[in-house]
Design a protein that fits this description.
Radius of gyration: 47 Å
Helix content: 55-70%
Order of helices and strands: HHHHHHHHH
Largest sheet: none
Length: 268
C-alpha cells in the first residue's frame, strides 16, 4: 500500500516536470563515457548537495529517480529521500504539494522527525503538525476514587451483643474470651450478692449492728459489681464506635485531598 501510494506521488510529481527537449538527430555527437554507478547513499548525498546549492528542480529529479528503485532501497535511505523530496516540494510549491510525500514517510515511520539544523523551520513545523494529526486520540486517564480500598463498613452494632460475640466474629478470640469472662463473672457475682441480700430481714432493728453492717457491705459490693458489669458492656461499644468514626474521618480526608492522600492513610 505504501509502495503504491509512493508510486502515485512520484508519478504526479514527474507529470509536473517540463519534458526535456528531444535531441536533434542532425547534430551528431560522440557518446559520453559512462560514469561509474553511484551507490544509493552517494545518490542521496549528491541530490542534497544540488538542492542546497540552489538547483531544486535537478535535486527533485534525482530524488525521484532514487526513490524509483523501490524495494532495493534501505528504509533509512528511502525515508531520508522522502524527507528531502517533501522539503523541496514544500519550499517550491507549498503544503499541498508536500503533503502526500510526508504522509508516505509517516506511514512508513510514524516517529520520523526532520533535522531542524538541515531543514527550514517552517518545513519542520509543518511536518510536526502533520505528524500530530495522525496520532490517535488519547483519552484522559479516569480519576479513580482516592479512597478506594479504605474501610467502609456500617456501625458495629454487634458490639451490643453480650459475651464478646463481636470480637469472635472479627477474628480476635482472645479479646472475646476475656470480655466474656468479665461479663459472666460480674453477672454471677451480682446474682450471688443479690441472693445474700434477699436473706436479710427487710427491716432491721436497732441493736442488729452486725446485720446492718453486713447489708451495707453487700449493697456496696452489689453496686460495684453491677457498675463493673455495665462497663464490660459499654466500653467495647464506645471504643469500637470511636474507631469507626475515625475511619470515616480518614475516608473523608482522602476524598478531599485526592490520590496522594492514600500514601499517608496509615499516619492517622
Amino acid at each position: 500500500m505504501i509502495g503504491l501510494l509512493l508510486g502515485l506521488v512520484l508519478q504526479a510529481a514527474r507529470a509536473e516536470e517540463p519534458s526535456a527537449a528531444d535531441p536533434d538527430p542532425a547534430d551528431p555527437a560522440d557518446p559520453a563515457p559512462a560514469a561509474p554507478a553511484l551507490s544509493p547513499e552517494e545518490q542521496l548525498q549528491r541530490a542534497v548537495e544540488i538542492y542546497l546549492s540552489g538547483e531544486a528542480g535537478e535535486a527533485r529529479n534525482q530524488l525521484q529517480t532514487l526513490l524509483g528503485q523501490g524495494p532495493d532501497l534501505s528504509p533509512a535511505i528511502r525515508q531520508e529521500a522522502l524527507a528531502w523530496l517533501g522539503d523541496i516540494l514544500y519550499s517550491e510549491e507549498g503544503e499541498a504539494a508536500a503533503r502526500n510525500v510526508f504522509l508516505v514517510l509517516l506511514a512508513e515511520n510514524p516517529a520520523y522527525t526532520l533535522d531542524s539544523f538541515r531543514h527550514p523551520p517552517e518545513v519542520v513545523r509543518y511536518m510536526e503538525r502533520l505528524q500530530a494529526s495522525m496520532q490517535p486520540d488519547v483519552q484522559p486517564p479516569t480519576r479513580q476514587d482516592p479512597a478506594a480500598g479504605l474501610p467502609s463498613r456500617p456501625w458495629p452494632a454487634l458490639t451490643l451483643a453480650p459475651g464478646g460475640l463481636y470480637y469472635f466474629r472479627q477474628g480476635r478470640p482472645a479479646v472475646g474470651a476475656a470480655l466474656t469472662t468479665l461479663q459472666v463473672g460480674t453477672l454471677a457475682t451480682s446474682t450471688v450478692l443479690y441472693f445474700e441480700l434477699s436473706t436479710l430481714p427487710r427491716e432491721l432493728e436497732i441493736g442488729q449492728e452486725a446485720d446492718i453492717q453486713r447489708a451495707r457491705t453487700l449493697r456496696a459490693l452489689n453496686w460495684a459489681v453491677g457498675i463493673s458489669g455495665w462497663l464490660c458492656v459499654a466500653v467495647p461499644v464506645v471504643y469500637e464506635t470511636a474507631k469507626w468514626n475515625r475511619e470515616l474521618r480518614i475516608r473523608s480526608v482522602q476524598l478531599q485531598a485526592g490520590p496522594g492522600a492514600l500514601q499517608v492513610a496509615g499516619t492517622f
